[in-house]
Records
---
Amino acid sequence: MTGTETVLGAPAERREGREKVTGTARYAAEYDAPGRAQAWPVPAAVARGRVTGVDTAPALALPGVLAVLTHENAPRLGDPDDPTLALLQSPQVPHRGWFVGLVVAETLEAARAGAAAVRVTYEAEGHDVTLTAAHPKAYVPESANGGFPAVTEHGDPDGAFASSATRLDVEYRVPPLHNHPMEPHTSTARWDGGRLTVHSSSQGTSAVRAELARMFEVPEERITVLAEHVGGGFGSKGTPRPDVVLAAMAARETGRPVTVALPRRYLPAVVGHRAPTLHRLRLGAGTGGRLTSLVHEVTTHTSRVKEFVEQAAVPARVMYAAPALRTRHRVVPLDVPTPSWMRAPGECPGMYALESAMDELAVELGMDPVELRIRNEPETEPDSGKPFSSRHLVECLREGARRFGWEGRDPRPGSRSAGPLLVGSGVAAATYPVLVSPCAASARALPDGGFLVRVNATDIGTGARTVCAQVAADALGVPLDRVRIEVADSDIGFAPMAGGSSGTASWGWAVHEACVRLTGRLAEHSGPLPDEGIAADADTSGAADAESPFARHAFGAHFAEVTVDTVSGEVRVRRLLGVFAAGRILNARTARSQFIGGMTMGLGMALTEDSTVDPAFGDFTESDLASYHVPAHADVSAVEAHWIDEDDAHLNPMGSKGIGEIGIVGSAAAVGNAVHHATGIRFRELPLTPDRVLTGLLEHEHPAGMLGT
C-alpha cells in the first residue's frame, strides 16, 4: 500500500505474519541464554488439605536436577494482589492441582523426571466441588466480575410475569470451559544484579511488571517484561499466572535464567476457566410479542482462594425493552480452581441462555424469532436509561436474514430432512460492551523519512501491531510502509492488557494522539530533522477513562444451519453467518479473522467443549486436548462474517468498537436454536454431543413409559 487514503480500514497483511509462518518469531520459551535452566511444577494430589511432608532427596539425586523449591525453602514473597499467585508460601492446599513444588534442572526432561520423583504427603480434608442451584452456601455477592452490581431490578417483574398472556420459565446449564491457547503459559526470567528481565506469554506486560514488583519487592523501573509474540490467550493470560512468578523465583534462587512452561494438562487448575453457570429465565410477553417481564438469575461457582463471579446476567440488562426486569447473580464457594476470564466472560454464557429463551418464547408465541427480537428493540439501554451511542442490531438482524435466506425458512420444527439427516436453522443476537482504558504512546519522525511508533500493546495473534501502525499512518497522513512500530515492552510505558475487546481502542487512541501531536510539531519545524528526530508523547488518562453519557456496545446477529443425524446423534454445522455492528472497522482482513475465530469458538462451545469436576478427586477430568475437544477444520465448513458500517462519534478518535469477543457471543445459541428447529427437541444443556442428542431423539420418538414396549 502506497497511498494514505485507504490506510485505515484496508485489509493490510499482519506485519509479523512472515515471521510466524517461517518459524523465526520467538515465543517466551525460546529466549535461550548461557546456563538457562528449565523448571517443572509439582501439582497437589488432594482436593483439599495441607502438605505434611516433602521428600526431595529422590529428585535431587537425579542427574541434572539443580534445586527443588517447596513451601519449606522457597523465598518469602510479598502479598500478591492476586491470591492465586501466593505460590510455595504455605502448606495449605486449596484445590487439586495447586502447585506445591518446583523442580529446576539443566533440561526440561530432567525437570520433569525430578518433579515425578518428589514425594509429598498430605493431610486431606473433606471437600466439596459440586455446584447446584440449591447449594446451601450460595450467596449474593456485592458485585460480579467487572464491578457490575450483582442484582438489578426495576418494575414488578414477578407480578408482571404472573399476569402475562404468555409465560416462559426455563433453565439452562453451561459447563466449565477452558481457554487452551495454542502456546501454554510460559515465562523465561533472568536476574542481573537487582534487575529482572522476563519474557512472558501474557496479554499485558504492565500488569505482570506491577505484580512482580509487589511480590519481589523490587521497584518497577528495575523490571522489564516483554511479550513480543503470544500464541493466544482468550483471557487466560489476562493476568499474571504462576509461570511468571515461579520463573522469577527460580531464577533468583539458582542465579541462572529459568524457563517455566506449564504442561497443558496442568492449565485447567492454575490459569482460570469459565465457571459453570446455571441459568433460570422467566419471560413474560403480551399477545403482540412485547416483553412484559424479564428475569435472569444465575448461579455459578468460585474458589475459596479468590472470589470471581461470572457476570452472566448482565447482558439481559442491555438487550430488550421490558418494563419489569430483574437480574441476579448467586455464587457458591467450592474447593475448585479459581475461575477467571474466558473470551467474552459473562456475555458468552449469558447470551446463550437469554437467546435460547427468546427462541423458545418465539415458538410459544408462534412468531418469527427475528421479528420477536426486533419487536422488543429498546429506545435506550434498559438498565441505565442512557441513550445508545449507536445501536444497529435491527440492521444486523435484517441484513443477516437477507444474506442467510431466512425468508424461505419453514418455521415448523422437523420440516426439513435429507435421508437420516434432519436440517434446521436458527438465529441469535449478540452484544458486547465498548471498553477502553488509559494508555501511553510515543511517535518519532526520523531523518530518513520514516516514523517510529512505540506503544506497549500486546499482539496475541489478533494483528494488534498492524492495526496500530495503520492508526498511526492515518493520523500522520503517510503511507503505511513508512511507519515502524514497537510493542509489548513494559519499558515503553503503561498500557492495558489485550482483553475485554478493548486493546485496539485503548492503544490506538494513545497512538492517534501521539501522532497528531507529532504532526503539529513537524508543522512548526523548518529545515532538516535532527539526527535523533522529533518526538511527541501521549497519555490518554482522564480522557479514555472519562465517564460517558452514552451506553456503548457492539451488536451482532448470528445465523446457523445444522444437520442432525438421527442414527448417530451427530450434529454438524453446515453454515454459520454473522453480521456485526462494531463501529469503524480498522482492518478488514484482521477483523474478519477475529469474527470468524469467535464464531468458531462458539461452535465448539455448542457442540464439543465440555468439562466436568470429578466429585471424588476434585479435579477437571478433561485436562488436555485429547479429552477436551475443540473444533477442527473438518467441523467448520462455511463461515461468513459481514459488518455494517457504523459512524459513531462517541467512542474514540478512530470510531472503533472491539471485535475480539462479539463473534463468540450468540454463536452457540444460534446453533442450539437450529438444532431445535431440526428436531423439535429443546436441549438446555451444552454441549450438544452425540450421546446427549441421540438420547433426546430416542426419548422424543418413544416418550417415557413407552420405551421397551
---
Amino acid sequence: MATFLYKLGRLAFRRRHLAALIWVALLTLAGVGAASAPSAGNSSFSIPGTEAQKAFDLLEQRFPGQSADGATARVVFKAPAGQKMTDAGHKATVEKTVHTLSDGSEVASVADPYQSNAVSKDGTIAYASVKYDVSGMELEESTKDALEDAAQQARDAGLTVEIGGDALQAVPETGSTEIIGIAIAAVVLVITFGSLIAAGLPLLTALIGVGIGVSSITALAGVLDLGSTTSTLAMMIGLAVGIDYALFIVSRYRAELAEGREREEAAGRAVGTAGSAVVFAGLTVIIALVGLAVVNIPMLTKMGVAAAGTVAIAVLIALTMIPALLGYAGRRVKPAGEKSKLLGGARAARKKEAGEPAKANMGTRWASFVVRRPVAVLLLGVVGLGAAAVPAASLQLGLPDDGSQPTSTTQRRAYDLLSEGFGAGFNGPLLVVVDAKGSDAPKDAFTDVSDRIKGLDNVVAVTPPAPNKAGDTATITVIPESKPSSAPTEDLVHAIRDAGGDIKADTGAETLVTGATAMNIDVSQKLNDALLPYLVLVVGLAFLLLIVVFRSILVPLKAALGFLLSVMAALGAVVAVFQWGWLSGLMGVEETGPVMSMMPIFMVGVVFGLAMDYEVFLVTRMREAHVHGEKPSQAVVTGFRYGARVVTAAAVIMMAVFAGFIGSSESMVKMIGFGLAIAVFFDAFVVRMAIVPAVLALLGKKAWWLPGWLDRALPNVDVEGEGLRTAADGKHTDPDEDRVPART
C-alpha cells in the first residue's frame, strides 16, 4: 500500500493543477445541487419490528386519508390573570383563531377547544389541535406563517398564545461556538507548524471536504429522506477528521524535508507513510459509522452512512489535494524544526548555526517518564477513568421531546402551559389501537379494552373508542399522570401491552400501543438490544484490521480495552452534565433529564473510530522504530518524539470542533458535541498518551508478538513504508523478510 500511495502522492504533487481542479469542480457541482434542492427538514421516523411501528402502519391501512404521519400543532391559549378562557371575549378570540386556521390548504382538521373539551378545569388554559395533511418536513412556509400569524392575532387580543407540536420544528442552529472551534483549530495548527501557510492547508482541505459532503447530503435530502441532523453530524465529524488527516500528512512532509529530500519525493513519502495510517484510521471510522445499520433504525443508518461518506471524502482529499497544495506552496512550507521569521524562525536558525544541541521535546520527556514509572502511570490512568465512569451506572435513556427544548422556544412554553393546565402526562398521550378484525363482537372488544385501561395505575383519562368506517378497528387515547420521559409512563406502556395478551384471549382483539411516547420507549429498547451485537461487530472488524496494521495480537487488544475505558468515562460525564445537572449552566443545558437513547451506541461507534485514529498514528511510529532495531522501551520514546506533538494537536483540534457544537439549539446535537469532545479528551490524553505507553513498556517484546502461521497468512500492507526504503536503497527484499521483526 505504501508504494501505491507514494506514487499517488508524487502524481498529485506533479499534476497539482488537475488534482485541484477536480476537487474544486466536485465542490461546485455539490454546491449547485444543494442550492437547487429543497431545504432539509425532519426525516420520517420509523422503527421496523416494534409494536409502535406496527400500530402506526395499521392506522395508515385502516384509517385511510387521515394522514397518520401528518404534522400536528397545539395552539395553547392562556387567559390573563384573574380571567378565564370561558369569558365571552376570549371565547370569541379563540373561535376566530380556529376559523382562520381552518382555511389553510394543507390543514386536515382543527378541533375547537370548547367543543372538544380542551379547556382546563380552572378555565385558565385551552388548546386547539391542528392536524395537517403532510408531514412537518413537507409543510409549506406559507402554512407555517399562517399558523404563527393566527397565534399573533390572538396575542394582540390580550391572550398568551404558544404553539407546540412538530409543525413549527425548525432546522437546528449550531451557534457561534462552532466558529470559535474552527478558530481554535487554526491557532493550534499555527503553533504546531510554526507557519501560517502550513497551518492553512489542513483547514482549507477540511472545509472543502466538508463542503462537498454536506452539500451532497443537502442535495439528496429530499430524495433519500435525510433530516437536518444528518448534515450537522456529517459536518461535525468531517471537520474533525478532515483537519486531523491533513495535519498528519503535512507534518510527515515537513519531517521528510528535514531529512534533506526533494519536495516531490517528500510529498510522495509523506502520503506513502502517514497516508497509509490515514487510510486505516479512516477505515475504522467508516466501519464504525456504517455499522450503525445493525440497529435497524433507518434514520440512524442514514446518519451513519452520510457521515461515513464525508469521512471517505476527507481521506481522499488528504491523499490527493494535500500533496497538490504542497506543490503550490513550494518553499513556503518549511522543514520540521524551522519556523517562519514571524514565529521565531530566526532565533531557531541562530541556535542551529551555533551548534547548540537540540532540546528534547515534551513528548520525549513524557514518554521517558512513563517508561520509568509504567505501573504508577497505568494505575493512575485506569483509576481516574474508572472514577469518571461512575455516573454511567445511573444512566437513564430516553428521547428528547418539547420538554427538553430551551425555554425561549414557543414549543417549550406550550409544553409548560399544557402541563400547568392539564397535568404533566398530557404532553405524552398514548394511542392505543384495537384491531378487532378477528373478534366476533368488535364493539364489546373496544369497550372491554377501554375499561381495563381505566383500571391501571398512573392513568388520568381515557377517551371513548373511536372506530373506523369498517368498524373493525378503533383508537383510544390514554393520558398518563406522569410526564412522557419518565419511568412510570414507561411502566404504563408495558402494563397496557401485558394486558393485551389477556384481552386477545378473551375477545380475539389485538391491542397495540403507539404514539410519540411509545415510539421513544421502543427506540430505547431497540437500541439497548442492539448495543452488544454492534459492539462485537465494530470492535471485531477493527480488531482484525489493527492486527494487519500492527502485526500483533496484544497491541490491538490493548487498543480495544483502552477504548472501552474512555467511552465509559465519557458516558459518565454525559450523565453527570445532562442527567444530574453538573455544570449544566456552563453547557447551556436548561432542562436535565434522561440521556438520549442513541447516545451509548452512537458514542461506541464514533468514539471507537476516532480513538483508533490516535492509536494508528502514534503506535505506527513505535512499531516503525521497533522494526528497525530499537528496543521496545526506546521505540516507545521514539514514537512519542515524532508523534506526540502532532497527536496532541490533532486531539485539541478535534475537541475544539466537537465542543463548538455544544452551542447548538438542538439538544441531541448539543449532547453529541459534548460527549464526543470529552471522549476525545479521555482517549487521547489519558488512554493513548498515558495508558498505552505504560502497557507497552510493561509488555516489552511481547507486545509485538504474532504467531508465525498468522504472520505468514496476513497480507503485508507496509504501513511503515519499508518498501519505500528498500527501493531507495536499491535493494530487493522478500516481503516475508519484512515481517521478521514483528515476531521478535
---
Amino acid sequence: MERVPALDEPLKKSLGPATAKVMAEALDLHTVGDLLHHYPRRYAERGELTTLADLPLDEHVTVVAQVADARVHTFNGSKGRGQRLEVTITDGSGRLQLVFFGKGVHKPHHDLLPGTRAMFAGKVSLFNRRLQLAHPAYELLRGEDGERTDTIDVWAGAQIPIYPATTKLESWKIAKAVDAVLPSAVDAVDPLPDALREGRGLAELPDALRLIHRPRTKADIALARERLKWDEAFVLQVALARRRHADTQLPAVARRPVPEGILDAFDAKLPFTLTDGQRKVSKEIFDDLATDHPMHRLLQGEVGSGKTMVALRAMLAVVDSGGQAAMLAPTEVLAQQHHRSVTEMMGELAEGGMLGGADGATKVVLLTGSMGTAARRQALLDLVTGEAGLVIGTHALIEDKVQFHDLGLVVVDEQHRFGVEQRDALRGKGKQPPHLLVMTATPIPRTVAMTVFGDLETSVLDQLPAGRSPIATHVVPAADKPHFLTRAWERVREEVGKGHQAYVVCPRIGDEEDQKKKAKASAEDQAEKRPPLAVLDVAEKLRTGPLTGLRIAVLHGRMHPDDKDDVMRRFAAGELDVLVATTVIEVGVNVPNATAMVIMDADRFGVSQLHQLRGRVGRGSAPGLCLLVSEMPEATPARQRLAAVAATLDGFELSRIDLEQRREGDVLGQAQSGVRSSLRVLTVIDDEEVIAAAREEATALVLADPDLTAHAGLRTALDALLDKDREEYLEKG
C-alpha cells in the first residue's frame, strides 16, 4: 500500500479523533499540511503585553496579561451560600476583570496569584458598565524549566503565537496541536524552484514553517513571512500564467479593420478628437484582434473616460473583417442606454438594409428579456443571418436559441456584475473562440488587476475627455446638523432653477416586495434603528415637501422595462427635473444636463459604488455637485468612508481604500461561495512588489516549461491551490 505523504496525513491520526473533529468543523483543517499552513494571526511578546485598552465587546479574544489582584467573595443565592472569584488582570494599557463562579473558583484561585502571567481567552461582555471575561479559559506562561516564573528576563522578547481561534478551540490548544505536527514540516514539498529561491535569498520551506510557528525573534517572523508570501504569490501567478499560455494556444480568427471600411467612415464623422489615452488603448486592442488567438483584455477607466467609444471602435473593426460583435450589459436600463448612444453616434452607419442607410452600414440590434415576440424574432433572425453586425443586450444574449452568423468579439460591460458561467456561455457561441474585451468603470489597483484579473492583459484609460467638469462632493450630517439637509434641497432647487437636473439616490425601493424581504430580515437587521430610506417614500416626501412644484419621477429595477425606458427618455430629454432612483443608474446612464446628486443613507453604499454613482453628474460643461447624506455619528468608520469619498475624485485611490476596509476575499473569485481564501500571509493591497516579481518569474517559467514537467513540487502546490471549483473558475476565465 502506498504511503500517505506526511503533510497529507489526516489530523485524526496525529491528534486523535476528538481534536481532529473540532479542527475540521471549526477551522476547516483536515490534514497535517492544513494545520501547518494555519499561521499565527499575530504574536504577543512575553514582556511587551497585549493591549487591553481596546478590547471589542462581544468578540472572542485572546490576551496575554499579568494578574494584579484576586479575591473570593461569598454571597447568598437561591441555593444557599455561593462563591465568586474576581481576578483583575493588567497589561499596562488597561485593566480587565475575570469572574469565576461556584465550584469553578477553586482551580483559578490556586493558579492565578498576583504577579502571575498567563494567556486568557473568552468572550468580552459588559457587567456594571465594566468589561469582563466570565469563566475564561487560561494557560499559565511557564519558564524554560517548566516552573512558573515571574522574572521578566525569562519572558522578555520571546514571541507567543496567537492563532485564529474559536470558542471551541483556544489559541494555545492550536499551538499544542501545531507542536505535535511541526516535525512533519521537514517533509514539506517546496513549490519554489531552487534557482528562484536562492536567487532571491528566501528561506527553505521547512525552515519557514518552523519559524512562523515557533519564532524566537521578530527577525524570524519577518524571514518566514517573506518566504511564505512568495509561495502564495508565485503559485497563484503560475496558475494564471498557465491560463494565459493556454489561451495563446487556442485558435481564433484574426480581425483587422479594412481601409475605407465602416471604422474609417465612423472616425471621419466623429465631432471630436479621440484623447491620447483612447488612441493608445485602441492600438493595444487592435493589435490583439489582429492575432490568431483570442484576445483577453481588461479595459478599466474612470466613469466618463470614454470606454464605450473605445469598445465601439473595436466592434466596428470586427464588423469590417466580416464578423459580428456582442456587448453584454448587466441591466436592461444600461443595455437600452448603450443601444441608444451607439446608434446615435453611428447615425446612418447603423441603418444597414434600411432606406437612408450609408454604404457599408450595418445593423445594430437590441436584445433583452422583456422585448415583444415580434421584435425578438426579428433580432434573432438578424443575428443568425449576419444582417446585424452589432448586438447589445442583457443576459438574454446567452440563451440557447440565440445564434450568431460569425461571432468575433464579446464586450462585457461592468465585469463584476456577471458570473463566470454567463461570460463563458456567450463566448461559447462563436464558431471559434471569439476575442474578449472586459470593461469596468470600477478602478482596480494594479495588484488586484495582477491577481483577480491576472489571466487578462490590462489597459487603463486614466484621461478624461475634454469638456468634463469637476465634481464637488460634501458630506451632509443629517442627524447632527439637520439644517445642512435643508440646504441640500435648496441647492437642488437652485440647480433646477439654472435649467439643470438632479438625481436623488436611495438604497431601497419601498414597495410590497421590500416589505416581504423586511419580514424575513434577521433579528440583527430588525434591531437597527430604522430601515434604509426608500425611493417611493422619499419621492413622495420631496413632492409634498422641499421640492414641491418640481417635476419628479422614480426609477427602480422592478418597474416594467417600457416604463423604465420612458422615464429615462423623459429625463434625458429634460422633461423631468429630479429623478429619485435606486442604484439602477449606477453605470452607463448619461445625461450631461444632470449636475446635482443627493445620495440618501450614503453610509449604506460601498466606496467604489459611491464613486460610480457620483460619476453620473458633471458629464456636461457645468460643474457637478454630489451630496452624501448620512445620520451616522462623526467618529464612525462609515463616516470616515464618506469623508474619503468627499476628499478625492481619484477612483484608483478610492479603490485602495475600499479594498483595505473590506480586505480581499478569495482572489480566485470563490469568496461568495464560502470557500476559504487561498491567501494567508499575502495581502493583495500591501504586497505589490512581491506580486509583480512573482508574476514575472511565473511568466518566464511557464513559457519555458508549460506543463511544469521539471517542477514536481510546484505541480503539487498547484493541485492543492486549484481545487475543483477554483480550477473551473480559471478555466472559464
---
Amino acid sequence: MSDSLPLRDRYFALIDEIVQSTLKGKISSQEQVYQMLLKGVTAGTGEVFELVLSDRLNSTQQQVDTEKDELKQAKATRSLRAMKTIQSQWQRAEQQNKVAEAITSAVREITLADSSERLAAFLRASDPNRKNPLTLQQIQQVSKSLQQFAQANPDFQQISEGITRGVTSWQRLQDHLISWMYEQSRGTLGFGGVPGEKGPWATWAKQVNSQIPQALFRTLAMEQSAIDFAQQRSGMSLSDWVEIAVILQSLQRGLVNWFDQQPYNVKAGSNLSISTYLTFAVIWSLLANGFSNTAPLYSAACHQVMLQILRTFAQRPYFPLYGGIFASFSGSYLRDALDYLNEPLQQTEGTQEKARILTLLGYSQRAMGQYRRSSEFHTAALEIARNAGDRACEIANFNHLSRTCVAEKMYAEAINYSQRALILSRQTGDRTGEANALVNLGYSEVMQAQQTEQTEPETYEMAINYLQQGLALSERLGDLQSKALCFSSLGIAYLVIGQPQAAIKHLEDGLQTAQISGDLYLQGLNLANLAEAYYQLQNQEKAVYTGVLGMYLLNQIASNEWRKTAGLLTILQGQVGAEAFSQILQQNRSKIISVIGVDGYDYIPQLLDEYRQSM
C-alpha cells in the first residue's frame, strides 16, 4: 500500500487488504487486524478512516441485501463479516491512538512550557477534570517519555523521577489504604484518631520509605500544621514535590473510589467521600499557604491541585448543598482550616463549581458564628449560580441566606429569602430546595413572632405547619441532611413557644438523624438545645449531660455557639453546687466518653473555666 496515495484512497486500500487477507486465510485473528490498523492509520486522521469504513460497510451491506447470485452473496457476507471485525478492532485501536495522542500532547505541553510553567503544565496534563484524563499508568508513560529530554533540561528528569517515586510509594500504600479504619477507637470512621497513634496518616507514615512524604504524614498524624511543614522545606526539590503530589492524589482518589463503592451504607460512604475531598483540599491549601513566601512556584502548584480536587468534588451527586461539617472531618489541625480555601477561590473565575464550593464555605462560616463572611460567601455563590444556570445551587443559597439572617436576628430578610427559595424551588421542581425553604420560612416566622412578642396561637401554628410540611417532604425524599435540619428547627420552635416536652422529641430525632448524616454542627446544636429543654423541665442531670456534649462538639468545630451552652452550664453549676455538678458528670462519665472520648471528658472543666474567664 503506497503512502503516496491520497488519504481516502489509502484507507480504502487498507480495508480491502485486510478483507482479502481474511478471506484468503492470511489473517486468522482479531489481534492481527488490530495491529494492521495501528500501523496503517495515521494518528489524527481517525475521522477520515471512519468515513471510508462506513462507506465500505454500507455498500457491502447493500450488496448482501440485493445480490441474487448465491456465490457472490456468500462472498459479500464474508466480506461484511471481516469489515465488522475491522470496525470492532478500530474502536480498540482508536482508543489506543487517543491515549497515545494524550500522552504525546502532555509531554509536548510540559517540554515546551517555560521553566516557571513546567510544573503547572504537568498538573494540567494529570488533571482528573479533563475530558479524557490520564490514568496513573499513562502518567508513568509520560514519565518515561520525559526521560528522553533529560539532557536538554534537568527539570524533565526531576518530574520523571518524582512520578516514578510517587508511583512506587503509592504501590506500597495501596494495601494499607483503608486498614486504619479498623484500628479506630470506638469503631468510628474518618480522619480523626489519637494523635500520632491511629488514623490514616500514622498508618501510612509507617509504610512509605521516602523521607519527605513520611515527614508530611507524621506531621498530619500529630495534628501539627502543614503550613509549618512547608515553611521548613524551602529547599525541597522538584522531584520531591511531584512525588508528594502523586502520592496524595492517588490516596485521595483511592479513598473516594472505595467509599463510593460501599453498597451496604450509601450515606456513610458518601459522607466519608465528602470528608476525603474536604480533607485533601484543605491540606493542599495549607501547603500552598506554607510555600507562599519561600517557594512561590510550589505554592501556585498546590493551589492548582486544590482547585482540581474542588472542581471534581463539586460535580459529585452527593455534593452537600445543605451541609458542610461532617463528623469524619475532624481533628484539631483542621479546625478553621476551611478559611484557607477563601483566598485561592477569590482568584478563580466565576464557575458553577466555584458557586458550589462557596456555598459550602458559607455554611461552614455560619456554623462558626462568622455571619458576615457567611453572607458574603452565599451572596457571591448566588450570583455565580444564577449566571451559570445552576438553579439547585441558587435555591440553596437563598435558603442559606435565610438561615444566616435568622442568626443575625434579621427576621424580615430571612422570611424574604425563604419565600424566594420556596417560589423558585416549586417553579423548577427542586423538592430538596422546597423542603428546606418550608423549614426556613416556618423557622423565620417563629423567631420573628417571638421577637415581636406575639402571643396569638395561630401565628405560631401557621409557622409550625410550614416546618411540619418541610419535615414530611424531606422524609418522602429520604434526604437525611434536610430531615435533620427540619427536626432541629421544629425542636427550637417548640422551645421558643414554651413547649419543652414537644421540643425534646424533635431534638432527639434531630440528633439521631444528624449522627447518621454526619453533620457535626447539627449534632452539637441539637444537644445544646436539648440541654435548654431539660433545663426548662428542671431535669438538671440530663441538662448537664446533653449540655457538656453540645458545648464540646460546638467548640471542636470552632462554633461560637458553644459559649451559649457554657453559660447555661455555668448557671446550672451555680444552682446545684460545684460538688453535685461534678457528681453528675462522674455518673454520666461512661456515656460522655462513648461520644467524645476520655480527652473530651477531661477537657470539659477547662472549657467552662475558659468561658468564665472571658465573661
